[in-house]
Amino acid sequence: MAGKRKGGRLGLALGVLVLVVLLVAGVGWWLSRENPTSPIGQPPATEPGEPERTQPADCPDVSLISVPGTWESAADDDPYNPQANPNSLLTKVTAPLAEANDPARVEVYTVPYTAQFRNPQLPEDVSYNDSRAEGTEKLRDKIASTHERCPFTKYALLGFSQGAVIAGDVTGEIGNGDGVVPADLVLGTVLIADGRRDQGAIGPGLQPTNGQGMEISLQGASGLTELIADATMTGPRPAGFGALTEQTASLCAGPDLICNAPMDAAGGAARLSEFLNNNAVHAEYDTNPNVVEGTTATEWSRQHLQSLIDSAEEVPHS
Known about the structure:
Distance between the termini: 73 Å
CATH class: Alpha Beta
CATH topology: Rossmann fold
CATH superfamily: Alpha/Beta hydrolase fold, catalytic domain
Helix content: 25-40%
Strand order of the largest sheet: 2-1-3-4-5
Radius of gyration: 29 Å
CATH architecture: 3-Layer(aba) Sandwich
Largest sheet: 5 strands, parallel
């Protein structure tokens, strides 16, 4: 009887041992089938679902996207060589940057849209509402299409006047998690003469404190602006720039009614006709020495954007 018990115990032990060996071997076979190149017990080199940090050869490290102001762009303009308005303010920034950087590293793109502002002097122009909507959609589409092909490309945005409203709105969407790319892909945004500039705007120089963007001042009188210029004044950006607040620089000349209108609606409405007829300072950001001390708004923007470009990682190409 004792011999039988010993034999039974030995058989049971051998059976358990065989079962364990088979179980380990089975797990090992399953792991090697899932990831043949990974040693058993070692995690794969790339986490599941994580793309390799390489991009197609035509993907830039940085996409610098410029949104011109009213009457400085057209829907059929060449985004890589804009000619709709040879005197467009932002070409004073983008042209030197395009020349100074390897196009394989930096793409310089100007959003082509119908940049107009219908008013009594220009009754045949496209309305501000329609112009702004077109520019906003084209900016979103450009960022989204680039990101789909080039997931590691970073973005720098630049806008002037109506273009600053557009670039600022899209920056706000991204910074608040509602945009077409994650916020960490945006290196920074520069807004010159932003019509939605509020008192909390961050600027590099002499940020005006006695006014705000015309779209904020005139929000309460939007019925009047719609009647005069078919332009809805949308007020401040409800959530600001979110995670991109510190990365967004606003430049505004004190006398410029677009970005520094009187704080009250009555004062802004009284000066609306002045803006429509004579707002010369709005066209002088390339020469005005009173926006950023020691330089001009365009030169500061160029240097700032170049520093953002220089900070961007170089992504290997596949």
